[in-house]
Amino acid sequence: MKKVIFYIIVVCMLLSFIGIERVYAADLELKVVTNFVNEPIIYERWNKIEVTITNKGDRDFAGSVILDYRSKVIQEVFIQSGKKVTLDFSLPPNFLDSSYNDVVIQVVDSRGREVTKRNLSVMWNPSTEKVGIIGSRVERYNLLKTLGRESLVTLKGEDFNNFLPLQNFSMIVIDDSKDFNLTGAHKENIELWVKRGGTLVIGANNTGFDFLPYRVTGSEIKEIDLFDVTEEVLYLKGEPLGDVLLEHDGLPILVKKDLGRGTVIFSAIPLTDNVFTKPQFFTGFWSYILPNTSENHLQNNIYRLGLLRDLRNVFSKGDFNLTFLKPGFLALGLIIYILVIGPLNFYLLRKWKKWDFGWLTVPLLAIFFTTSLFIIGSTGRSKEIVDTQVSIIEYLDENQAFVDSYISIFLPSSREKRVEVEDGLTLTPLTNGISLVNNKYFDLSEGRIWSNQRVHVTKVVNKKAPVVSVDIFHYKKEVVVENKSEADYFASFIQIGGEWHSLGEIKGGEKKSYTLTSGTRNIDYNFLFQRYNSPNRWMFSEIGERLAEGMVTFIAFEDTLSPVTIRQSKGTEGLNIYLLYQNAINVDYREITGIRNLPGVVTKVKAADYTKWGNAHFVRGDGEVEVVFTLPSGLDYSGNGLVLSTELYHYGNVKLQILDIQGEWKELSLGGMVNLGKAENYLLGNVVKVKLLVSQGASVDINPHSFKLSVVGGGQ
Fold this sequence. Notes:
With about 725 residues, the chain is of the alpha+beta class.
């Protein structure tokens, strides 16, 4: 009987090692598509990684797909024989927390054994912004390449599963939604993308969106005569609900509406109509659309994770509630240890003539001192999971906000293996001790004890925005701010026309009024350094200056609320930055000449050597830089003039040009102030475009103060 039991145990052990039959790499076909069109992973951009696995074997496969970039994102899969699955992964900008430069897709079985893997290449230079096409014939839009939109991508329904990689698209065009199934979640992601700065162009009926600038009531065949083309087209009859950009015989053709920081443009001629195959009609038609896009706002979003990381490094509150040994105390302890275990121990053993006890006193003293230092050093450390959150809370409208958060989770012991978060978040781990599993929870099993594991989190919340109103005169600004939150803003600022004004503390529920005259070019951040006693001022990045855009931006600071809930965390400390752009601020231009020092935004760079650091651009060698000024819409600029100011460092042959309403580039003098004359000669909608031409061997450095545009009276 004992032998039978022994053999049974041996057989069970062998079976446990052998397990079920393995699925080998030959059985699985792995296909990886990066950034929609197999573009390499871009370090400075959001990245989409689509993984498709086909099981060609005769056995079902159960295992996991792992995206390994020092951190890990894990998705468990089960693939029946002869079937396939497709998984989506996202990588944020600046996803590498060190010099680690490998991104790997790995497929493992249920026992963690590798089946197959794929190494993915990483580029460190920005890619061309993309135009997404929802429709079956992307080749119809090839003429957009001649108009400066070089990368065209046909989008699928699953491309809208995650909002974040959509930020690589400057514009999305819907020309045919008949065979394109957009779920409710997809439509919400498209709306969020628009609200944060995207441009949506729609030339199709029955899209299901409720925020269009045009209400379709019917259709008819009409003959049109536009852009030297006479042809019958299908015309969508309806009611314009926005600004008419183009009309024909009193009928609206193109209608525009602002939505958040973005733009929605509707074409009453379906974009699938054959008239768009005529090159002169296509280019003429799109010449009314492109000047009214809002794509420059998206670039502001892309680089926020780097700003959040900088803030966390400066205001390292995740380490504030952990009392580590101070270097001086540790050095003193080591000196005492050396003196005791050496001269003192030797002196006492000689005095007592107990030399044989040396083998015992030395290890005992070593154990005593190391244990004492360990206990003293660990008593101040948290015994529970705690987290630190540095968050940017951007209000999309008066009731909704987008939260961008950089979170540090303190791991107090090796017992903590799993951290759960609230639902409705987009999660990305950023350090090598934390893994995201099935987009539901974080696995900390590889994290070191007493380490801080970091993650990037985004979410959309329903939250009352502060009410900010600004009356702009030529020499002053009247500002009223009402804090609708229950939390106090310990500091707040407003940027108007490139100048910053401190508004001070605003308590929860408080309403304050200000009369502002002259401001400053930058915010004095000593209030933050003093509040957090930060030792890292030397590595500080300007917060407001990197977040501001357009004519008016409001920013406030608060550190009592927790935008993201970490369920196992026993304590949360944070810094919240509240952000309102002009779309969420009531701005009244009492005097149009109050539009002064409007900053230009760099939207495109083509150069032999180009680097970007925050809001600074460094261009070397042959190339060009396009800069856009977006003036407040809905104002009559006729009869007024424009003055362009340039202030930048350049070396060699660099020329400045401006685009006029005839589509021609005119050369201007570079440096100082240039009176452009009548505003209507250069306004394309509400946009003015200039560009720098950099010759071979030349260079130019651009910062947020390099280009300023002002409206003056009596344009000539």
